[in-house]
């Protein structure tokens, strides 16, 4: 989280903007390798359209205080309040790594100014109530089938929590049964971020290399940010 905040503070953006930029850089590196050896050449074909379902927490306060929830104070409620937006992740090989952050901020800015996440959440609740869970599931599956990546960045508890007096070291959420080839969960917990990656191995046969691309992209972007700020 500290590395992400260095970039966040330098650009005056959000953690989500930084993670979108890192995702753009990592997927670009991975696809560039798949289209040819990483010999410094730019092997990506032009105008790759990589559509992503981005889950959005529509709660007014995204910070989770488990102690408050357990006591029932502050009007906090259990359960999910999550909408989604359709985002086109930029896929390109930029000379300057921080260009991925700039592009990430550019594509997310329009979504922040729209009501897409609120609409998808409200319409989902309405469809379930009027038509039932089967119809809602079929509609949701059809929409997800037209996207390649699922992206989630949901803030976790800010204090240490435990289960029957056993402290949790980290939280690693994931899902299965959905039609997307790549699922990314960025999960924060106690000022740390874990990346949980789930893939269709027919599409991404070497997921560990993709994880390495995320690590390398964060380092390159952070180093370039520090260098430009000095």
UniProtKB/TrEMBL annotation:
One Gene Ontology MF term: O-acyltransferase activity
Entry-linked InterPro entries: O-acyltransferase_WSD1-like (IPR045034), O-acyltransferase_WSD1_C (IPR009721)
Protein name: O-acyltransferase WSD1-like
Domain O-acyltransferase WSD1 C-terminal: residue ranges: 78-222
Top-rank taxon, per record: Eukaryota
GO biological process entries: triglyceride biosynthetic process
GO cellular component terms attached to this protein's record: plasma membrane
PANTHER family: O-ACYLTRANSFERASE (WSD1-LIKE) FAMILY PROTEIN, WAX ESTER SYNTHASE_DIACYLGLYCEROL ACYLTRANSFERASE 4-RELATED
């Amino acid at each position: 989280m500290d590395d992400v905040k260095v970039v966040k503070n330098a650009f005056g953006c959000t953690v989500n903007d930084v993670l979108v930029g890192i995702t753009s850089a990592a997927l670009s590196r991975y696809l560039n390798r798949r289209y040819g050896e990483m010999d410094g050449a730019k092997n990506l074909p032009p105008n790759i359209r990589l559509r992503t379902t981005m889950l959005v927490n529509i709660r007014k306060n995204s910070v989770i205080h488990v102690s408050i929830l357990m006591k029932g104070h502050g009007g906090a409620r259990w359960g999910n309040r999550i909408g989604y937006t359709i985002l086109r992740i930029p896929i390109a090989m930029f000379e300057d790594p921080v260009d991925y952050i700039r592009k990430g901020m550019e594509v997310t800015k329009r979504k922040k100014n729209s009501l897409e996440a609120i609409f998808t959440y409200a319409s989902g609740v309405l469809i379930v109530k009027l038509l039932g869970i089967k119809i809602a599931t079929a509609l949701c599956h059809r929409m997800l089938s037209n996207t390649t990546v699922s992206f989630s960045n949901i803030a976790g508890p800010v204090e240490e929590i435990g289960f029957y007096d056993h402290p949790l070291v980290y939280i690693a959420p994931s899902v299965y049964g959905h039609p997307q080839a790549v699922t990314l969960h960025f999960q924060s917990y106690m000022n740390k971020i874990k990346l949980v990656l789930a893939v269709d191995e027919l599409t991404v046969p070497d997921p560990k290399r993709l994880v390495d691309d995320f690590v390398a992209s964060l380092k390159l972007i952070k180093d370039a940010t520090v260098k430009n700020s000095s």
